[in-house]
UniProtKB/TrEMBL annotation:
Organism: Rubrobacter xylanophilus (strain DSM 9941 / JCM 11954 / NBRC 16129 / PRD-1)
Subcellular location: Cell membrane
Name by which UniProt lists this protein: Cytochrome bd-type quinol oxidase subunit 1-like protein
Gene Ontology molecular function, alphabetical: electron transfer activity; heme binding; metal ion binding; oxidoreductase activity, acting on diphenols and related substances as donors, oxygen as acceptor
PANTHER family, alphabetized: CYTOCHROME BD MENAQUINOL OXIDASE SUBUNIT I-RELATED (PTHR30365:SF14), CYTOCHROME D UBIQUINOL OXIDASE (PTHR30365)
Domain of life: Bacteria
Cellular component GO terms held in the UniProt record: cytochrome complex; plasma membrane
UniProt keyword Electron transport present: yes
GO BP annotations listed: aerobic electron transport chain
């Protein structure tokens, strides 16, 4: 059998990889984000002497360790499938990215050791709390470094450097590495924050004890601060990432923004609008339970909620009536029917900037009220449903963005596993591959 001609039964190779990658990415992003948020929470508990922080950090560490094993098993299976089903691609990639993959493996081992040490030493280091917090932060930094080296690989596949493949520095610092790394760092923290809020809301609705209701009410607030706060950075960072793709892989940019897959960004705009409106609505509701009543702040937050809804709706307007042609969702002549308010310039820019400023305004008001404290355990059921909604939406958003980036590889010609170098059917195109040395392959 020729090398690379193995076909996975029933679902095929093309479907098998996303089946493995999607759960792995969701779990890995959770582990990395939580291993950064939980030590911060433990440190805040040390500084403020509020037990909620330490309780959350310890439970988060325990759950992270439990889910870590599942994510690792899926990752190992994924690599095995790449080696088996895509041997030409894997052989080429692992030779170019040897040092990045080796460093990633060491970071992985270090993260495992420190995560388990951090959790297992919780009681033993109760009187050396500052040192224990350091263990937690080190585990988070190892996880962040591991993700950074993987981002080197992922960004290179989409925008390989034009320098020789043996030029390690230029290969690793390829055109989209920095914006992708920033995008995923901020995205992980936002993603985990929204999941924390959603889980807390679920537990709040099921709790009957006063102490548990107060704790989960606080936990929902804590998670949403992380989720919503870092979400506000994504339009700026996302713009920078897309700009890098446009400059160094224009076919992929056009494919996503004005081509067959442009509907993905309309879907992403809807998801951002849901998270933005639901988040602001929760903050507005929570201001009712501030220790010191603030009617003026609530009035301002209510106005910002209206602006958030308007700007979110503006972002979601499509450019034409050709909504999702792949499934036949086309109206009134499709591409021939242009929708003026759906143009990227200036309307989408106005929508994104408006959502960002409205969100920052409400967040500032809410943090001011947070400094004076809230009465916990009194939130309404609908506010908890809002938190569950943002948690479900952020998972869909992660999948949408991941699919958008990976499907952009099909933008030109046969589609590429490594842009301009190895096609989806593992054919090497030496005339356009980055040179191995100063010459060509």
């Amino acid at each position: 059998m020729p090398v690379g001609d193995i076909e996975f039964p029933v679902i095929g190779n093309d479907a098998l990889i996303p089946v493995l990658v999607v759960p792995h990415i969701l779990i890995a992003a959770f582990v990395i984000g939580m291993s950064l948020i939980a030590p911060v929470s433990e440190y805040l508990g040390l500084v403020t002497k509020q037990p909620h922080y330490d309780r959350f950090a310890r439970n988060a560490a325990k759950f992270t360790i439990l889910i870590f094993a599942s994510g690792s098993a899926i990752a190992i299976t994924f690599v095995l499938m790449l080696i088996t089903l895509y041997p030409v691609f894997w052989s080429y990639l692992q030779n170019i990215m040897f040092w990045a993959l080796l460093a990633e493996a060491f970071m992985f081992v270090g993260e495992i050791i420190l995560l388990y040490a951090w959790y297992n030493a919780w009681d033993r280091m109760a009187y050396r709390k500052r040192l224990h917090v350091v263990f937690g932060f080190m585990a988070g930094l190892f996880g962040l470094a591991q993700q950074t080296f993987i981002n080197v690989v992922g960004s290179y596949m989409l925008t390989p450097s034009e320098a020789p493949a043996t030029n390690v520095g230029a290969t690793f610092l390829n055109p989209t590495f920095v914006p992708l790394n920033m995008h995923r760092f901020v995205g992980n923290l936002s993603y985990v924050g929204f999941l924390i809020a959603g889980w807390a809301a679920w537990r709040y609705l099921r709790s009957t004890g006063e102490n548990d209701r107060e704790y989960y009410d606080w936990m929902g607030h804590f998670g949403l601060l992380w989720g919503f706060g870092f979400l506000l950075l994504q339009p700026i960072i996302g713009y920078g990432y897309l700009k890098s793709i446009r400059e160094h892989n224009p076919a992929a940019f056009d494919y996503l923004m004005v081509g067959e897959k442009s509907w993905l960004f309309n879907l992403l705009a809807i998801e951002l609008a849901v998270m933005g409106v639901a988040g602001v609505a929760y903050f507005l509701h929570r201001l009712r339970f501030a220790v010191r009543p603030m009617p003026a702040l609530r009035g301002a937050a209510a106005g910002a909620l209206g602006f958030m809804a308007v700007f979110g709706a503006l972002n979601a307007i499509p450019a034409d009536a050709n909504l999702v042609p792949q499934i036949g969702l086309v109206f009134a002549g499709g591409e021939r029917t242009q929708i003026p308010l759906g143009d990227m310039y200036p309307w989408k820019y106005i929508g994104l900037i408006g959502m960002t400023f409205a969100g920052l305004f409400v967040l500032a008001l809410y943090l001011r009220a947070t400094a004076r404290g809230f009465h916990w355990g009194r939130s309404s059921r609908w506010s908890q449903y809002a938190l569950i909604l943002v948690a479900a939406t952020v998972v869909a958003t992660m999948m949408t963005m991941g699919y958008a980036r990976e499907t952009s590889r099909r933008a030109e010609g046969p589609g590429y596993l490594i842009n301009g170098c190895i096609t989806l059917d593992q054919k090497i195109t030496p005339e356009t591959c980055p040179p191995v040395t100063g010459g060509s392959l």
